[in-house]
Design goal:
Helix content is about 50%, strand content about 10%. By secondary structure, the protein is mainly alpha-helical. It has a three-stranded antiparallel beta sheet with strand order 1-3-2.
Length: about 70
């Protein structure tokens, strides 16, 4: 899905919010805000409430980042 910025996503199935924030060079609070603003971005949550992002979620967040920060 994302071809504008080559993101090297490690080979794992689930990622914590801090890992995703580091991959996308964002602060975790930005991802939490985007979850509220963009309904399509909705990572799963564990029983304890911790967010778990899948590869599709990371691709979507990268697309949002590109549109907001590059395309404006």
């Amino acid at each position: 899905m994302v071809e504008f910025d080559a993101i090297d996503i490690p080979d794992q199935t689930e990622f914590k919010i801090g890992e995703v924030a580091k991959l996308l060079d964002l602060e975790p609070y930005v991802l939490r805000y985007w979850e509220k603003e963009f309904e399509i971005l909705s990572p799963a949550k564990t029983d304890s409430g911790q967010r778990t992002y899948r590869r599709d979620d990371i691709d979507l967040a990268a697309t949002i980042r590109h549109l907001l920060y590059t395309e404006m």
